[in-house]
Structure formats: C-alpha cells, structure tokens
Design brief:
The structure holds two protein chains of two kinds. By secondary structure, chain A is α/β, with parallel strands linked by helices. Chain A contains twelve helices and 14 strands. In chain A, strand 10, helix 8 and strand 11 form a beta-alpha-beta unit. The longest helix of chain A is centred in the middle third of the chain and has 17 residues. Chain B has a single domain, classed as Rossmann fold. Classes of the chains: A alpha/beta, B alpha/beta.
C-alpha cells in the first residue's frame, strides 16, 4: 500500500477534483510557477494552466472577495491564504460577506468556496506567521471550519469541503505537510469524510482527550507514553471539523471515561475548546468525574525564541503532566 | 545638480559613511546566511543583498528623532538606522539581549529609541501605522518625519492605497518608500501590475510620486532628502519608488530559480557597493587600503557580535507571558 504525506494528500485531492469538475479553480499568491509557499500546488500549473491555477497580486482581501463572487455565479474556487495570520487581512470578505450572503439573501445564494491556509507555530516564525486563529473563524455563523490532523483525513475532508455548498475554512498545519513521521496509506480514488464528524484516533477507557490538527498527533504520543508509564488508557478524539462540531461523539466518549482533557494550540483564553467544555458541561454534566481541563497555548502571541515558543505551545510533556495531575497521578506542573 | 557637484557637496566623510553602512549590511547578510544554515537561528531570514543603497540612502537623509517602519526584510533598514550588530545578532539568536528580547526575531527587528519601529511582517502592514505616527508628529507640533519602507508587492494591498489617500488628505509628514525589487516572493511585479511605475499611483491620491535609482546610493539620498525635507516643512507625503533588485531568494530556503539569468545578471552589473566603491576610488576620495580597513573593521565587529549573541542568556520559560500588557500581568 502506498503511503503519502499530508501535503501530497492535499495536492491529490485538488488534482483529482479539478480533473473531474471544471468549475473548480485555485486562486492565491505564488501558487502557480512557484507551487505555493509550502509547495502544495507544485506541478499543478503545468496540468491545469494559469486560468485555473490563478496567481494573484498580494491582495488577500480581494482574493477572498473574488472567490466569493465567482462562487455565487457558478464556480467552485479554492483560495489559498499563504499563512493563516493573513486571513485577518481578508476578514471583511470572510466574516461580513462570504459567511453571511446566503442568510441575508433569504437562502437565495450559494457561496461554495474553500479557503485553504497554513496555520500553527513551532517554526520559529514569531508573532505574525505562527498563529492559530480557528476560534475567530468558528465563531462566525455561516462558516464551516476544518482542521485535518493526518493525510487520510486531509484528502477526504478537502474533497468534502470543495463539494460543500458553503464557505469552508480549511486550516492545514505547517508541521504536518512534509513530515515523514505522519505518512499514511491514502486511497488513490476520491472519497469524502463528512464535515461535522469527528473521529476516534485511539480507543481508551480511562480519560478522553479532544484535540485538533497537530495537537492530535501530540496527544497520541502522550497517550502512548501514559499507557506505557502508568497503564492509563486515553481515548483520543480528533474533532476534524470544529464547525459543525461533533458533540455527540465527544459525549459518547466522556460517558465512557468520565474525564475530559481538551488540547489546542491557540491561546487558552477564548479558545475553541472553551466551546467544547461548555457544551459537555451543559449536555453531560452527570458524566463527569472531574472538572474538564484545557491544555492550550499560553495567553500571548507566539514568541520567536525557541525556549519561549516551546513554552507557549503545548508539547507532549505538558499534555502528559497536565493529564497526570488531573488523574491524580502526580502533582506535576500544568 | 550634476553628479560631480553633488559629490563635492556631500563631501568625503558622508560618502565614506554611505560606503561603510552598505558594506555593513552586505557583510552582515553574508555572515548570517552561514549561521542560519548551521541551524543556529530559528525560523527563516529574508535578506537584503543588492538593496543596500535604498536603506542607506534614505536613512542617511533622516534626523535622529525621525522614525522608520520596516517589513519582513528588515536587516538592512535596522543597520542603516543605526541599530548595533550586537542587538540585531542577539535577536536572531533569540537572546534576551536582542533588540526585542528574543520575542521578535528576524522579521520584527526594531528599536524605537533609535528611530525604528519594530518591523512589521505583514505585507503592507506598516503603511497605516506610519500615517498615524506622522499624524502624531504633526498634532504634537514636532518637526519629525515618519518613513515607511515596503515592497512592490505591498503596493497591491488595500492598505497601500488607503494609507496614501489618508496621508494625502491629512497632509501628514510621511514618506512612502517603495523598494521595487521586481519580485513579490516568486511573482514578477510585471505579472501583477499593469503599469510600469508604482510611483505613478501617487497621482491618484494627489501626492507627488518620484522615482530614484535604488542601485545608486547618491540618487536615493538626494531624492529621499527632498521628500523628507518637504514633509518636514509641511508639504505633505511623497511616494518614492526605488528601482532595485535582491540578489538572493525571497527567504532563506528560496533559491530564487524563477528569476531569469539575464535579468539577474543585468542587475548584478549595477551592484550598489561595487559601483560606489569604483566611484570613491576614481574620484580619489578613498584608497584601496582605506576601504579594506573599513571592511576588516566590520568583519571584526561581526565576529564580536556573534560571540556577544552566543554568550547572551536565553530567555527563561517564565518570560513567556511578560511584556504583553503595559500595566497588567497576564493571568495563566
């Protein structure tokens, strides 16, 4: 069975969908000859031509506006915003336009756009090239927000996102793109993973970890260690889609384990896991044996120094020590 | 004025100063390229090689209390504005002695005490801020000027257009310096702009647009001085386009293979340092020995700054939440 990287899975989804559907086109900065800042679209200009692999000026707001406009008149654009930090520049066209147009028009329009963007830190790129802004986006009614954690999910979720008739923000993680540690068997044919369905990435009975994107991989590493070192069996739930949120899957797991630890890269204050914790408390209070904990980014911008960046972003050790403390296995530092 | 007259008017000291600053930038960039490849610095670096005349020409025309704002490619601006090798090098090493105490890194160099805002790594991000800084100078009746450095790519962002218009109607003492190095990351400006000169866009906002040769430090200096003095006298903003080129890729991992060989070579013939050195020698303003001494001193200063950076302390994990709010500790 062939195994491919996260980046290759994303590219394959784009290529296969574009071969099938002429209304799908890509638009973004440096995506044509250069193949994108991270190399996702390398080789696609040669196959699809410059009309469908549309290089643009550095103009994030208009990239999204153009994508939304063309979507309303029959196209199915996939826009690339180079770093997720730059999404803030396009925020009017995302939050005020794309997300609301269908609703404001009484359901008489469709805005089938996908906004692909590279999020997350761990790259020493400091405050303006490392952020995890998913909570801002998931907060806006009308948007769907997807964050794949592995190659298999990336392909299936991207195809589902392109086929979806709503604006979808598809946040990829820079540290997953080319990392050989996470290569995986990915079917050669097209398949969809439905938006709004989470996934159990590791079965367990003692504690539930809910995570997104790269934090799923770190949580899986932490869970393996906790099993080896303490015979503690964590279940790892990958949200895959933040909005719609698969709350039923989380509740089912918490009902089994009685404990919930939420892991995310973004600063904890106002982070997306606050929503998860709040819904679990509302709908599953009786299932809980302990207060829910959030293991997340510190409440500051992503710093440059590796010492500080490693402190700001949760790592495997912090996930382990927080869970150990929650489970009464240690008095470790959270 | 004729070139010869200008050279006479500037005088030897100033011209040697231009040369020294440009070599400082070039030597710094050449040196850190290797340090970066050795994995001593996190993240990426965007280098300024080939563009030295821009930063040096503009910054040499500023007064001490003026302010500049830079981009993701700020090393040259920082050196030209007078930041020390030590504080820049230590920042690239992520040390507490760096100009941003290790929190900003390569893309956010700056030191307001020396007249340089912390560099802003969002394309077009510094223009609105420069309008604001210069508006403050005007409101406080301070005789100061704020300068925005940005690239050709930024001139397609909304913030460029909105800032020029705002500066024009507020008549702020701002100078917008567009370093047109022909490429926004991998994309030739010719593919994303239908006009020849970015300076022409000034007309849409009722301000003056000026073009200078960004490979000639004297030409940059003269035009920058005009724009800066005009702003200082209440004459309002100017858009100054410097035609230039980077002799390296967009970022450290980019070999720049999208640049046609002939294009690169034709610009390399205009190398701002080589040509200026020839001029100094030809005009008898300096001898080879004198210039070699300058180069050697710079290399020594670089050696020292690397030692300084390597021996400086790393931040402690407890420093992560420091310096976020002015008067409040950040709760965990």
């Amino acid at each position: 069975m062939r195994e491919i990287t996260y980046l290759e899975a994303i590219r394959e989804a784009l290529q296969q969908k574009m071969r099938e559907d002429d209304s799908v086109y890509l638009i973004g900065e440096d995506i044509a000859e250069y193949g994108g800042a991270f190399g996702v679209t390398v080789g696609m200009l040669e196959e699809f031509g410059k009309e469908r692999i549309r290089n643009t000026p550095i103009s994030e707001e208009v990239i999204i506006g153009v994508a939304a406009g063309s979507a309303m008149t029959g196209m199915r654009p996939v826009a690339e915003i180079m770093f997720s930090d730059f999404i803030t520049i396009a925020m009017d066209d995302i939050a005020n336009q794309a997300a609301k147009i269908r609703y404001m028009f009484g359901g008489k329009a469709r805005v089938p756009i996908v906004i692909r963007t590279a999020g997350g830190g761990g790259t020493g790129a400091a405050g303006q090239h490392s952020q995890s802004l998913e909570a801002l986006l998931a907060h806006i009614p009308g948007l769907k927000v997807v964050m794949p954690s592995c190659p298999y999910d990336a392909k299936g979720l991207l195809l589902a996102s392109i086929n979806d008739d709503n604006p979808v923000v598809f946040i990829e993680h820079k540290l997953l793109y080319k990392n050989k540690k996470y290569i995986q068997h990915v079917p050669g044919e097209m398949y969809e993973i439905p938006l709004g369905k989470g996934d159990i990435k590791r079965k367990g009975k003692d504690l539930t970890i809910v995570a997104t994107s790269f934090m799923v991989q770190k949580s899986l590493d932490a869970a393996e260690d906790l099993k080896k070192e303490y015979n503690m069996d964590c279940e790892v739930v990958d949200l895959r889609t933040l909005r719609p949120l698969d709350i039923d899957l989380i509740l089912k797991s918490v009902n089994k384990t009685g404990k919930l630890a939420c892991v995310e890269e973004a600063p904890v204050f106002g982070g997306f896991m606050g929503e998860v914790a709040s819904q679990v408390t509302e709908k599953g209070f009786d299932m809980l044996d302990a207060p829910i904990i959030r293991i997340a980014g510190r409440n500051c911008p992503v710093p440059y120094s590796l010492v500080l960046e490693n402190e700001m972003i949760p790592g495997v050790e912090r996930i382990k020590s927080s869970i150990k403390k929650m489970a009464g296995l240690s008095q470790g530092k959270e | 004025m004729e070139h010869e007259d200008i050279i006479k008017e500037l005088g030897k000291e100033k011209l040697i100063g231009f040369y020294t600053k440009m070599v400082k930038i070039r030597s710094f960039e050449e040196r850190i390229r290797f340090l970066f490849l050795e994995g001593k610095m996190p993240g990426t670096i965007h280098q300024y090689i080939g563009m030295e005349a821009n930063a040096v020409g503009v910054c040499s025309a500023l007064q001490k209390d003026d302010v500049i704002a830079s981009t993701h490619r700020p090393h040259g601006h920082a050196i030209a504005r007078g930041l020390s090798f030590n504080e820049i090098m230590a920042e690239l090493y992520g040390r507490t002695t760096g100009c941003c105490r290790g929190k900003g890194g390569s893309m956010h160099l700056g030191n307001l005490e020396k007249g340089m805002l912390t560099a802003i790594a969002i394309v077009g991000g510094n223009l609105p801020i420069v309008v604001g800084m210069s508006l403050a100078f005007k409101l406080m009746k301070q005789n100061r000027v704020a300068v925005s450095f940005f690239g050709d790519g930024a001139s397609n962002e909304g913030s460029f257009h909105e800032s020029l218009n705002m500066a024009a109607v507020l008549n702020t003492p701002s100078v917008f310096v567009c370093e047109n190095n022909q490429y926004g990351a991998s994309t030739s400006i010719k593919k994303v702009m239908k006009i020849e000169n970015i300076a022409d866009r000034a007309r849409s906002y009722g301000i003056e647009g000026v073009i200078a040769d960004g490979m000639d430090v004297i030409d940059v200096y003269i035009h920058a001085k005009d724009a800066i003095e005009k702003a200082r006298k209440g004459g309002g903003p100017t858009l100054l386009e410097l035609k230039t080129f980077r002799f390296c890729g967009h970022s450290r991992r980019d070999p720049g293979s999208y640049i046609p060989k002939e294009e690169k070579e034709s610009w390399q013939r205009k190398d701002p340092i080589n040509n200026f050195k020839k001029l100094l020698l030809n005009e008898g303003l300096a001898g080879e020995d004198e210039l070699d001494d300058i180069n050697n001193l710079i290399e020594k200063e670089l050696d020292e700054s690397i030692i300084f950076a390597q021996e400086s302390p790393e931040p402690a994990p407890e420093d992560t939440l420091k310096d976020l709010y002015a008067t409040m500790e950040v709760p965990e």
